[in-house]
Write a structure and sequence with these properties.
Length: 274
């Protein structure tokens, strides 16, 4: 695969960043994952908007939008007409001293692409005892500091599940390691509000616009007690939840999930950059 590193296309085995890059040494960076279908990035504008928002929260320079579009186009063209892929946009604090202080170097920009694997038709999930800090400095920001997610997802995999679900510090349902959560209760579709500390997912936002859902605070236990539930993310779209902590939900997919999946697929096919 061909990647973009600091203004140039490079072959995968030649793609390098400094050992002193702040994204590597302290996780000082932000990123976006964009789904690519038939060579076209989906919802690229929304992803670039969120990358800008994340960069502002961390105090990183916001990338030039025209330059980003150009770089994405060059990476996709260099890798041919990929039928299904994930495009990763990463912006870091650049070369800096060892420690939390930033240096004077410009930020590092990396754009990479990889083949996208198909997700299972449904997912088993487990809740974890670790919490999201809804009041943290980077709450809801898509930073490269993902070690917490790595640990939680490994915990889920060790128990035969495909995703780990976090509560926040108040014990409220929050999000997965790489997904937003929607639950169906008595015919109503509900998802945690952003104030719960979850990521403002692009797929989440599109589902709120296209399908509609109540943004309500829920206890973590509401997930296992739901009539139906699903995960939403850039690469999953809508993935029904089959089991929560080993308990099978009444339906997977239930009627609300099935409708969300159908409407999302139809609207996404009609507009590649909604």
């Amino acid at each position: 695969m061909i990647s973009w590193v600091d203004g140039a296309l490079v072959e995968e085995h030649r793609a390098r960043v400094s050992a002193f890059d702040h994204g590597l040494t302290v996780g000082d960076g932000v990123f976006e994952t964009v789904k690519v279908a038939d060579g076209q990035p989906f919802a690229l504008t929304r992803h670039l908007d969120r990358l800008d928002d994340s960069a502002r929260v961390l105090g990183l320079p916001v990338p030039d939008r025209d330059g980003m579009h150009l770089a994405v186009g060059e990476v996709l063209a260099a890798n041919g007409n990929l039928p299904a892929a994930r495009l990763r946009l990463t912006l870091t604090g650049g070369v800096a001293p060892l420690g939390s202080d930033r240096g004077s170097a410009p930020p590092t920009l990396i754009i990479a692409v990889a083949t996208l694997r198909a997700w299972p038709a449904s997912a088993d999930v487990v809740t974890v005892s670790w919490t999201r800090n809804e009041r943290g400095a980077t709450a809801g920001v898509k930073t490269t500091s993902y070690a917490e997610n790595v640990v939680a997802l490994a915990h889920a995999h060790a128990r035969g599940a495909g995703e780990a679900i976090f509560a926040n510090t108040r014990g409220e349902l929050c999000e997965g390691t790489g997904s937003n959560v929607f639950v169906g209760v008595d015919g109503r579709l509900i998802t945690p509000p952003l104030a719960a500390g979850c990521l403002a997912g692009v797929t989440r936002a599109l589902l709120l616009e296209w399908v509609g859902a109540a943004e309500e605070t829920l206890p973590l236990a509401a997930l296992a007690a739901a009539d139906e539930a699903f995960l939403a993310s850039t690469t999953r779209d809508v993935q029904p939840i089959l089991r929560v902590d080993g308990r099978m939900l009444p339906a997977a997919p239930g009627p609300l999930t099935a409708r969300a999946s159908r409407v999302f697929a139809e609207r996404a096919e009609a507009d590649v950059d909604p």
